[in-house]
Amino acid sequence: MKQSCYDARIAVVIPAYNAATYLDESLDSVMVQSENNLEIWVVDDGSTDETPNLLINRKDTVHSIRIDNSGGPSRPRNVGIKQSSAPFVAFFDADDVMLPEKLEKSVDAIVQYPSVGLLFTDFCTINSAGQRTNDSYLHEYTNFRESLVPTEIDGVYLLPAEHAYYHLLNANFVGTSSVVCPRNTLDLMGDFDETMKNADDIDMWRRIARGGWDFLFLDRTMHCYRMGLNSISTRGVSRFPAMIKGLEMQLDHLDDNENIKIVHVRLGKLYRMFGFALRKAKQFSEARSAYSQSLLYHRKLSAYKGWVLALLGK
Fold it and tell me: Which CATH number describes the domain made up of 10-226?
């Protein structure tokens, strides 16, 4: 694959933290893409395993930068984006596997729809051994599909910005490793929020939709998402504060009661889940606080029960 820092159509940005187990497989899947006008940027987020050595061995085909550990994928993504001036940016995780025509089909679709700020695709899931566990992760995500508008491209649908934002208030149906964005969209939106150790991706997707950019959905499985790993974007209990913060921030942008109610119900659920996780971690005082916040947003009997159990140290 030819590499160029100047004429690449697509910059593939890959955050990596202790990714040595799967990094070679992931990079191989990018390098055999049918679209070969690429530059690959791996940002090593202070790995302590063999990740740096693997990247040295690929220095002729892969650009790499090492930074101090930031604790999440947002800073590595920002660093990677800034390294390239390519007109399209594709995001990818260091343990996922890209299917062969993913980048070519994504960019070919985007260039035909100038109003689009983001393209995403369906994807399958695999386990640690690489075995498929689900052929279509988005098959059961039916709500956003109700708002899809067919395009002239077979299997590609437009998701208007206002509908994309509405559905992103309910769930994150945009897999980060499926996303390709025009460079100008990212330049206008600014950085991923580095105060968020996770959920920085859905925060960006919501900002793009709020900015009025339509989404494109390529309804094909175009990568394999590896489940259940302690990767850069998986931080256990600690994932909840950023998810909650990202959703609470949306309240500043809402003025219609329907969407406000949707966010309140969703926040109530997230705080209940957070409270449950804290109870399991025996952080009972913090669990009571989480359940109390849940009740402020959406009163559910399960939140009352959780608060009592946390009080009893159970």
Answer: 3.90.550.10
Range(s) for CATH 3.90.550.10 in the chain? 10-226
* Residues 94/19, Cβ–Cβ less than 8 Å: yes
Taking alpha carbons only, the member of 265, 314, 262 closest to residue 288 is 314
Number of H helices, E strands in the chain: 11, 11
Give the whole-angstrom CA distance, residue 258 versus residue 209: 18
- Separation CA 288–CA 272 (nearest Å): 10
Residue partners of 5: CB distance under 8 A and separation at least 6: 39, 63, 84
Distance CA(174)–CA(237), nearest Å, equals 22
pLDDT tens over the chain, length 314 residues? 334 333 459 999 999 999 999 999 999 999 999 888 999 999 999 999 999 999 999 999 999 999 999 989 999 999 999 998 899 999 999 999 999 999 999 999 999 998 999 999 999 999 999 999 999 999 999 999 999 999 999 999 999 999 999 999 999 999 999 999 999 999 999 999 999 988 999 999 999 999 999 999 999 999 999 986 544 434 457 889 999 999 999 999 998 899 999 999 999 999 999 999 999 999 999 999 999 999 999 999 999 999 999 999 99
Which residues, listed in sequence order, are joined to residue 65 by a DSSP beta bridge?
43
Q: Tell me the CB-side half-sphere exposure of residue 175, using CA atoms within 13 A.
A: 27
Q: What tokens were used for 255?
A: 């003025």
Contacts (Cβ under 8 Å, ≥6 apart) of 133: 125, 126, 127, 227
Tokens matching residue 215 = 């989404």
Contact 25, 58 (CB under 8 A): no
